[in-house]
Amino acid sequence: MQGYKTSKINNRRYLGNKYKLLPFISEIVAKECPGITSLADIFAGTGAVSSAFCDKLAIITNDLMYSNYICNYAWFGTESYSKKKIIDLIKRYNALESCKSNYMTQNFADTYFSKEDCSKIGYIRSDIERLFKQKFINERERAILITSLLYAMDKIAQTCGHYDAYRKGSSYDTALELYVPLAPKTNNKLNKCFNLDANQLVKDIYADLVYIDPPYNSRQYCDAYHLLENVARWQKPTVYGVAKKMDRSNIKSKYCTNQATKSFEDLIQSINAKYILLSYNNMSQKGNDRSNAKISDEDIMRILSAKGTVKIFSTEYKAFTTGKSDIEDNEERLFLCTCYPKGT
Ligand SMILES: C[S@@+](CC[C@H](N)C(=O)[O-])C[C@H]1O[C@@H](n2cnc3c(N)ncnc32)[C@H](O)[C@@H]1O
Predict the structure, then answer these.
(1) Domain 6-339 is in which class?
(2) Domain ranges, ordered by start, for the chain
(3) CB of 56 within 8 A of CB of 184?
(4) What DSSP character marks residue 26?
(5) pLDDT digits (tens, 9 = 90+) for 126-180
(6) Binding pocket residue ranges, ligand 1, CB within 6 Å
(7) Model's pTM, two decimal places?
(8) How far apart are the CA of 280 and the centre of ligand 1, in A?
């Protein structure tokens, strides 16, 4: 018995993640984008799409949220790491009994997690930072350990997958257990991970294929995942309200606001690539206000057609709904733009 469990990149819940769509995306890229050697996944989220290509292409990942950057750095980073060190630490963390009072117990006891699990989460997160400051672990090892903690929190949180609210009066049956992330040891040496606004990043990078998967509607990811972001950053901010959110004003996405179309247009104009592949579903005006798509199909076509020739591919795909709106014919679409040569 090895005494620990392992996790893969898709072993977490994340709104709009494209794990189930990977066969569809891979097929289109294989058929329509011959000879590419690099991919930039600039709204990477979990990194699921990058994971489908990382054994063939050099990968650039990017996300506005630090918690996603950390996980992507764990999965796709090029720095070497000691698996033994990770396993030993995870075994030690899993053997912890209840720990002292800390930021997590003071702010989150018996909300999303039991008081005891909060004490462990707070202890473990501080310990990772201590080991990093002492240079006992490097940046990749730090990222792998934080990833393990975030995935473990996701498994037991008393939520329906996001942190807008917690289930009151929960019984907290499952205790925190960290798994060892099976992060590849030999990633492409040209991989790079960023934590920037995609509109800023594209001005400074080139990739043969740029994959774009922005938020579609007014649901801000920093609202849904504030607690994972809080623990990843570990700056111990004041939290407020029933959901105990921290200030998120500097990580709000323009793609969830009325500025979405303008931001998308600026983004596309600044991209330097052979191909642009956009995921955008057909929720516009079908669900409730909150789930309506922010960019219309007409605007998508107008903006992409100015950059190159556009083809659309679609598949039926079950949309996330809260159960309040019943959306039947939802489909996930891919817009492929073969860019005109620069300067034309
Ligand atoms: C639909 S999700 C991407 C899901 C991803 N393809 C996957 O499979 O997990 C959109 C992502 O865009 C990120 N995001 C929102 N606005 C952004 C921006 N301006 N720049 C970079 N990332 C942004 C969000 O944090 C979120 O993770």
Answers:
(1) alpha beta
(2) 6-339
(3) no
(4) H
(5) 999 999 999 999 999 999 999 999 999 999 999 888 898 888 777 888 899 999 9
(6) 14, 16-18, 43-46, 48-49, 62-65, 68, 197-198, 213-215, 221, 253, 255
(7) 0.94
(8) 12
